[in-house]
Amino acid sequence: MAGEQMVDVSPGMQCCAMQWKEYTIGFGDKSFKVFETIGLEEPQLEITEYLESIENAYQLIKELDSQGGIDMLLFCIRAGNITATHQSNYKLFYEFLCERKVPIILAITNLERERTMEDWWERNKRTFDKYQIQVAGHACVTTVNRLGGRHGDLYEESRVTIRNLVEKFTADEQKQAWIGGEKLFVSSMRKLKGLLAVGSHVTRKDIVPRLTKRCGISRDVARKLATMIKQDAVT
Questions:
Q1: Predicted model pTM
Q2: What is the pLDDT of residues 123-155, one digit of tens each?
Q3: Helix H or strand E segment including 209
Q4: Residue 25: its H or E element
Q5: How far apart are CA 175 and CA 169, in angstroms?
Q6: Contact 14, 38 (CB under 8 A)
Q7: What's the maximum distance between 2 C-alpha atoms anywhere in the chain?
């Protein structure tokens, strides 16, 4: 989308769920705030991963709210088998974080070897139905930018496709951006508990230090949020 590499893809980089980074990307006569967010690597979470997700989610929701909310989600996956991990990430961001209130677009990468990139979607779209992954649109693309020849043409085609989808689903502020807030954070973390590995148990004492030390929340507010996360409902 940016037309240049903006993300650090170092193989040794440590990543955890909900880890994020902000970018400003401009094209045409518009500028877009893009928040690149790390998803789950496995369909289930260990306690440490869950607690890291609490910290990252709070900071992310706080920053998104300050920027005016979320207009759309771009769900990026590599071409290959669709798995339970893809389904868990779909639920994490679309259902848990955004409560199904913003459009989600699927971008499938690594398709430069296809005769026509769209062929991959035609072969695999029913698999997304099987995993109950429903999207407002999709883009079959490549991120391989080898100047000249077929790869260069496919890269340019991909860039245009992604940009067109972004413009379509954010055009003229077609609807008010979705804003989460404290209740959304609590709701997301409660639902995320459902992805904990069997036998894992999180206590309020586990959660409070994460919110106070890492997120700068007062102890009283941290206890309140931790209690709400542990409860069955958000009031």
A1: 0.77
A2: 999 999 999 999 999 999 998 876 567 778 899
A3: helix 204-209
A4: strand 20-27
A5: 9
A6: no
A7: 61
